[in-house]
């Protein structure tokens, strides 16, 4: 009894309400989901209550119910999902069956509400079902400690696909007069969550909807921009999709970025996005979001979603650089983007904990510099020199020589700052090395600048101090590419490399192209 008295006041107040409301009523089993959301804490639910709530919901939703009985239970489950994720659902067979039941029921409700045009939509119920579908998407894509087994995941993905098809059908009917309604935003949100993980199915339907999504995101962005309401943009995803009376948040772009990142790889969707003006919109959005992280703004209050959004924008731009280089050259918005990247990287590479964003900015800037090499802004201006110096800093500090016990020779190892995130960083690093190599012959001032930074000398010194067996072939290729281009571009670079035992190092690592280049006058 002493332990029971320590339960939070939310619990006792709720019990009193339920007992008072259900006294003498046979339908008490299904009335309490209507009341519980009224006194659930706004953020987290006391852990001791979760087991009872889940067990009660499992009994209710596992019974044959009418819609007026089932809908409050779905809304309560959605509130719990928003507050606790999947932590309130027990692991094991019972938990996986319950989650599968939740997602199944949610998908059925969504299809019933949205597939038939002209049907009155119970927006609060469907929005709650969206939250449960989002929970299902998260669990289906979770590799470790997922509540669901693989056959259940396959089944739920198929069911959710049909529900997403209904969402697309609904959005295609939305006119301009409804675009400010929160339910439309909630529908775009669940579609964005789906597209972030799955773009191969419903491809035809998604392509058909893309013009609407671009126009919708542009409308919301421009209205927020006119109001100068950056705080509204920051708080977008902090609002519960199932909270009655939530203000219309406005930032649809952040919801769509992951899906658009996937779609820009594919020819058909990419052409639609370009035709509808998505790249220009994304450039403006990136510059606006970047402003939030610049000096003068309190970055400590920014949610992680802002930095993640910036990284995802960089990935989209990287896709466009590779697949649509002509667009980068002709669209003026990318010139503005390049200027921002150049002025921002020097400070960014010095900031603790922002290495992954710096990697994105450096790699994107290097790739764009190859395409915009004739731009006046890249002809040895202070901004361009500062950018390339910062890019060299990012590329050169990734690896160090590390002593090994019992051996006279050190091995090549990742720097401490890079080691923990190398899985996310390595593709950008290799792409950045390749892009820098491509910039050297296009920008005559770059090789002397690299020589002044002492990168080629220090790189050869690093290779000479470690065991060649510790350097992977792909690393050898990346290093050789940079050294060869610098040597070819500048006589002083060649001389400096020879003084640093460049020919001997090239022989040890079987860098035939570098060895030949250094043997020439």
From TrEMBL:
Keywords: Signal. One of its GO terms (cellular component) is dendrite. Residues 1-24 form the signal peptide. It comes from the Eukaryota. GO terms for biological process: neuron projection development; regulation of neuronal synaptic plasticity. Belongs to the neurochondrin family. PANTHER family: NEUROCHONDRIN. This is Neurochondrin.
């Amino acid at each position: 009894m002493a332990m029971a008295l320590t339960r939070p006041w939310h619990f006792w107040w709720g019990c009193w309400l339920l007992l008072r409301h259900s006294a003498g009523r046979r339908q008490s089993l299904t009335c309490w989901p209507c009341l519980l959301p009224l006194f659930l804490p706004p953020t987290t639910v006391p852990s001791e209550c979760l087991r009872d709530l889940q067990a009660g919901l499992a009994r209710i939703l596992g019974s044959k119910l009418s819609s007026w009985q089932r809908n409050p239970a779905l809304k309560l489950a959605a509130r719990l999902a928003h507050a606790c994720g999947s932590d309130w659902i027990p692991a094991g067979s019972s938990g996986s069956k319950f989650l599968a039941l939740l997602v199944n029921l949610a998908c059925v409700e969504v299809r019933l509400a949205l597939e038939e045009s002209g049907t009155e939509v119970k927006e609060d119920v469907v929005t709650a079902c969206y939250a449960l579908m989002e929970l299902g998407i998260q669990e289906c894509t979770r590799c470790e400690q997922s509540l669901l087994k693989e056959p259940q995941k396959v089944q739920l993905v198929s069911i959710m696909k049909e529900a997403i098809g209904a969402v697309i059908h609904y959005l295609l009917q939305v006119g301009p007069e409804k675009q400010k309604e929160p339910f439309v935003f909630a529908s775009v949100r669940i579609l964005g969550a789906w597209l972030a993980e799955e773009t191969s199915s419903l491809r035809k339907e998604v392509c058909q909807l893309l013009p609407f999504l671009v126009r919708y995101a542009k409308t919301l962005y421009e209205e927020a921009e006119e109001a100068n309401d950056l705080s509204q943009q920051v708080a977008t995803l902090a609002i519960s999709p199932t909270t009655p009376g939530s203000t219309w948040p406005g930032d649809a772009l952040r919801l769509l970025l992951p899906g658009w990142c996937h779609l820009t790889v594919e020819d058909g969707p990419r052409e639609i996005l370009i035709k509808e003006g998505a790249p220009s919109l994304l450039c403006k959005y990136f510059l606006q979001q970047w402003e939030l992280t610049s000096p003068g703004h309190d970055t400590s209050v920014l949610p992680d979603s802002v930095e993640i959004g910036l990284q995802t924008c960089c990935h989209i731009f990287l896709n466009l650089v590779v697949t649509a280089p002509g667009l980068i050259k002709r669209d003026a918005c990318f010139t503005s983007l390049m200027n921002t990247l150049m002025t921002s990287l020097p400070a960014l590479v010095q900031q603790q904990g922002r290495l992954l964003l710096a990697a994105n900015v450096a790699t994107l800037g290097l790739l764009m510099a190859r395409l915009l090499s004739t731009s006046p802004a890249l002809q040895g201006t202070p901004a361009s020199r500062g950018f390339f110096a910062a890019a060299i800093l990012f590329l050169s500090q990734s690896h160090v020589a590390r002593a090994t016990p019992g051996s006279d020779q050190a091995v090549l190892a990742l720097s401490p700052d890079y080691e923990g995130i190398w899985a996310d960083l390595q593709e950008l690093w290799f792409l950045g090395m390749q892009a820098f190599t491509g910039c050297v012959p296009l920008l005559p001032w770059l090789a002397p600048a690299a020589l002044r930074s002492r990168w080629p000398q220090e790189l050869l010194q690093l290779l000479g101090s470690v065991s060649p067996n510790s350097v992977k072939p792909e690393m050898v290729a990346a290093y050789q590419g940079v050294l060869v281009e610098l040597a070819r571009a500048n006589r002083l670079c060649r001389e400096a490399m020879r003084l640093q035992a460049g020919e001997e190092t090239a022989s040890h690592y079987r860098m035939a192209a570098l060895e030949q280049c250094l043997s020439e006058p």
